[in-house]
Design brief:
- The protein has 450 residues and is of the alpha+beta class.
- It folds into two domains: 205 residues, no CATH class; 164 residues, von Willebrand factor, type A domain (Rossmann fold, 3-Layer(aba) Sandwich), CATH 3.40.50.410.
- Strands 3, 4, 5, 14, 15, 16 and 17 form a seven-stranded antiparallel beta sheet that branches. Strands 7, 8, 9, 10, 11, 12 and 13 form a seven-stranded mixed beta sheet that branches.
- A hairpin with a 3-residue loop joins strand 8 and strand 9.
- Helix 3 packs antiparallel against helix 5 and helix 6 runs antiparallel to helix 7.
- The longest helix has 35 residues.
- It is a single-pass type I membrane protein.
- Belongs to the calcium channel subunit alpha-2/delta family.
- This is Calcium voltage-gated channel auxiliary subunit alpha2delta 4.
- Keywords: Calcium, Calcium channel, Calcium transport, Glycoprotein, Ion channel, Ion transport, Membrane, Signal, Transmembrane, Transmembrane helix, Transport, Voltage-gated channel.
- InterPro entries: Ca_channel_alpha-2/delta, VWA_N, VWF_A, vWFA_dom_sf.
Length: 450
């Protein structure tokens, strides 16, 4: 009986498989095209070797492009003579293709054609130009200006690399002085973001501290573009919006609003005791309310203060944990560290902290460790090619929609070749390019390996 049941069960399974597997339909379709389709036996080892060879060639082209950039950057620095008073004409990326009320290009703006490019996610770019990005707290110091001027030599190499290998995506040079040269030129060079700037205007922020705080706010505003949204809250005994009309919301960071904010910030004055807890709670509330309406959830709070006397861990617990969706950047102003513990607590739990003693010291303090750690490698001129681990990168499309893409990057250090710097081991920066892993997958299509 067991044997009969097993035979019967096997027949049932076979019948079900034939019915639902689609085997009969596949056989019928094959007969329909049998006259024009042929079957070939494939050597699996040969196929894999071919894929490997093609991938090696593609990755090799990426490495050659990066090597050309490194050589060009080192040669440009070798023949560049540092000029403490260097001045040269340049365009402000945030003002390009913008006009005044009379339709004339803004000062430092200029007109540059931007065309949607399929290769760069249909973003409007100019493949004949690169642009310099300078982060918050970095400004037009002599070393920045000299570096920007020197690295113009990379522009021709960027273009040549792209012509030799059209599969290249973004190419870049990250300088150890703090700026970033990116090719091709893109007007919306950063992802859209919602930013709330929170500034301490209590009595302890008087004098130079307030001056530094205002400068910090202005440099943050200068990093924003028309796709970003922003507001500024000042706090002491109470909180107040620097522009009452914008209370409880975010406004587009276009040129007019940025300049309007700068004028209002210039008029800030100090008074009273600093109570940051209410200001932080208000900032989180704004970002929560505009979630999905502003800049696609890329949100940040910029806290500028000389110290935080209150314990406000419960604010983070209520509004930002456990996801930590909102990134909090803290800028501690002044030389004294009396009330810094709570600001440091924010930094430890939100990953970003800067101590600003003077207008000029941020650059040196942040970047000095990089030179110290890299010195042995620089002296030996170890031009190691580095491939990063695969990572998820946020890709911006011209529709302002965002998506995650699996990427890897190939990078190489750039050293000073000047005789007077060899014993010091000067790292000029890093050059690199991104590689989407989907480019590798295209070399081994599924229909060939299944």
């Amino acid at each position: 009986r067991v044997q009969q049941w097993a035979v019967s069960f096997s027949k049932d399974i076979a019948a079900l498989s034939a019915r639902y597997s689609g085997a009969k339909l596949l056989q019928k379709k094959y007969k329909d095209v049998e006259s024009v389709v042929k079957m070939e036996e494939v050597d699996g080892e040969e196929l894999v070797n071919k894929f490997a060879e093609e991938m090696e060639g593609m990755l090799g082209r990426k490495m050659k492009s990066v090597k050309r950039l490194a050589e060009a950057a080192e040669d440009a620095d070798l023949y560049h003579e540092f000029n403490e008073t260097l001045e040269f004409d340049y365009y402000n990326s945030l003002l390009v293709n913008m006009v005044d009320e009379d339709g004339n290009p803004l000062s430092l703006g200029g007109e540059f054609p931007l065309e949607e490019n399929e290769h760069f996610n249909k973003l409007p770019v100019n493949t004949q130009l690169s642009n310099i990005q300078v982060p918050t707290n970095v400004y037009n110091r002599p070393d920045i200006l000299n570096g920007a001027y020197m690295s113009e030599a990379l522009n021709d190499v960027f273009i040549d690399n792209f012509q030799k290998d059209p599969t290249l995506t973004w190419q870049y040079f990250g300088s150890s002085t703090g700026f970033f040269r990116l090719y091709p030129y893109i007007q919306a060079a950063t992802s859209p973001k919602d930013v709330v700037i929170v500034v301490d205007v209590s009595g302890s922020m008087k004098g130079l501290r307030l001056t530094i705080a205002k400068h910090t706010i202005n440099t943050i505003l200068d990093t924003l573009g028309e796709n970003d949204f922003v507001n500024i809250i000042a706090y002491s005994d109470y909180i107040r919006y620097v522009e009452p009309c914008f209370k409880g919301t975010l406004v587009q960071a276009d040129l007019d609003n940025r300049e309007h904010f700068k004028l209002l910030v210039e008029g800030l004055h100090v008074k009273g005791e600093g109570k940051v807890k209410k200001a932080m709670k208000e900032s989180f509330k704004i970002l929560n309310e505009v979630l999905g309406q502003g800049s696609l959830c890329n949100q940040a709070i910029m806290l500028i203060t000389d110290g935080a006397m209150e314990d406000f861990q419960d604010v983070f617990e209520e509004f930002n944990w456990p996801e930590r969706r909102v990134r909090v950047f803290t800028y501690l102003i002044g030389r004294e560290m009396t009330f810094a513990d709570n600001v440091k607590w924010i930094a430890c739990n939100n990953k970003y902290y800067t101590h600003i003693s003077t207008l000029a010291d941020v650059q040196e303090n942040v970047m000095e460790y990089l030179h110290v750690l890299s010195r042995p490698m620089v002296i030996n001129h170890d031009h190691d090619i580095i491939w990063t681990e695969a990572y998820m990168d946020s890709v911006l499309f011209n529709t302002q929609a965002q998506s995650l893409l699996l990427m890897t990057s190939v990078a190489m250090p750039v050293f000073s070749k000047k005789k007077e710097t060899l014993s010091h081991g000067i790292l000029l920066g890093v050059v690199g390019t991104d590689v989407a892993l989907r480019e590798l997958m295209r070399l081994a299509p599924r229909y060939k390996v299944n």
